């Protein structure tokens, strides 16, 4: 049995499902996915996990950890893809819910599973152009660009956004959640790849504007096009610590 697994969150629809289905067909590695509407546990393929429900998240982490331990498996790649967006006909969401699913959950999943990462694991944070720093004030850009920024300090900054304190925060929870996720990518790259010399590749990807439930029918890109760069990044010789779109790097 191949003892490596790829985990994709939000594998029940849209871009995540496309990545999941493509890998299931083409990759000999075990693939596992999550989604709140996944069919009841089909270990290790799909876990039903509601990222807005603490108990459900704990169950997923426990089940997955037990599975990895029992089968002596390592994680070859983690694709943090599940996300929510309050606009464009999607169900309305609070600031807290958006930050929770789009920022805190990728962070929790990463830290819960990092002990299982293989020596050359790939961690792919699916982000968005709406999180590019040029969209925000200089003050907010400086807060996210602070070279001394630690994960704890970033968490505090994100918390002030939820509480609407400090800075003139824009009313764009989704953009802020993705800017914060990108900042996590940079902090993790610095800590694990640069400082600890791990051979992991940790990147962010903007899939472009894609015709999914989140992107809506007007989006110019098909789901195949949206999944292209994440699928490429799972296989190619890309560099760690960068932000990609259409297989090319873009500024943070
Ligand atoms: N579409 C675009 O135009 C676009 C543009 C830029 C970036 N992105 C990013 O691309 C990624 C995929 O987006 P998409 O367009 O494929 O979105 P989507 O079609 O809305 O799919 C979102 C996925 O996230 C899962 N998810 C949402 N809430 C969840 C929750 N509370 N608990 C567990 N899973 C949850 C969904 O699972 P269930 O349905 O089972 O709940 C689904 O599998 C996201 O990170 C998004 O921010 C998309």
Quick gist of this model?
By secondary structure, the chain is of the alpha/beta class. It contains seven helices and eight strands; from the N terminus they run βαββαβαβαααβαββ. Helix 1 (14-26) crosses helix 7 (223-235) and helix 5 (151-162) runs antiparallel to helix 6 (173-195).
Rg: 17 Å
So, the CATH homologous superfamily?
Answer: NAD(P)-binding Rossmann-like Domain
Structural class: alpha/beta
Kindly give the count of domains.
1
How would you describe the shape? globular
The third-level CATH topology is Rossmann fold
What is the makeup of the main sheet? 8 strands, mixed
Which percent band covers the strand fraction?
15-25%
What percentage of residues falls in helices of 4 or more residues? 40-55%
Can you offer a commentary on this structure?
The chain has 252 residues and is an alpha/beta fold. The protein has one domain (4-250): 3-Layer(aba) Sandwich (Rossmann fold). The protein has seven helices and eight strands; from the N terminus they run E-H-E-E-H-E-H-E-H-H-H-E-H-E-E. The chain has helices spanning 14-26, 54-70, 95-113, 138-145, 151-162, 173-195, 223-235, and strands at 4-8, 30-35, 46-48, 74-80, 117-126, 201-205, 243-245, 248-250. An eight-stranded mixed beta sheet has the order 3-2-1-4-5-6-7-8, with helices on both faces. Helix 1 (14-26) packs across helix 7 and helix 3 runs parallel beside helix 6 (173-195). It starts with a strand and ends with a strand. The model has no long low-confidence stretch (mean pLDDT 95). The site of NADP nicotinamide-adenine-dinucleotide phosphate (NAP) has 31 residues, from helix 1 and strand 2.
């Amino acid at each position: 049995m191949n003892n490596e697994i790829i985990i994709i969150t939000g594998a029940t629809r849209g871009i995540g499902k496309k990545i999941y289905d493509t890998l299931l067909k083409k990759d000999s590695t075990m693939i596992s996915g999550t989604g709140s509407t996944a069919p009841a546990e089909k270990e290790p393929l799909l876990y039903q996990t509601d990222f807005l429900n603490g108990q459900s998240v704990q169950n997923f982490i426990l089940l997955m950890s037990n599975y990895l331990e029992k089968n002596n498996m390592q994680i070859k790649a983690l694709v943090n893809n599940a996300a929510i967006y309050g606009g464009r006909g999607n169900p309305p969401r609070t600031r807290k819910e958006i930050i929770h699913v789009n920022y805190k959950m990728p962070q929790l999943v990463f830290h819960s599973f990092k002990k299982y990462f293989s020596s050359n694991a790939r961690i792919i944070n699916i982000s968005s152009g709406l999180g590019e720093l040029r969209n925000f004030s200089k003050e907010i850009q400086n807060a996210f660009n602070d070279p001394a920024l630690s994960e704890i300090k970033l968490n505090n900054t994100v918390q002030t956004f939820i509480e609407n304190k400090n800075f003139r925060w824009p009313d764009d929870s989704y953009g802020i959640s993705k800017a914060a996720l990108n900042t996590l990518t940079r902090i993790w790259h610095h800590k694990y790849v640069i400082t600890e010399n791990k051979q992991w590749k940790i990147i962010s990807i903007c899939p472009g504007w894609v015709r999914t439930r989140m992107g809506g029918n007007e989006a110019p890109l098909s789901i195949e096009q949206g999944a292209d760069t994440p699928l490429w990044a799972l296989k190619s010789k890309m560099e760690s610590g960068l932000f990609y779109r259409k297989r090319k790097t873009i500024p943070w």
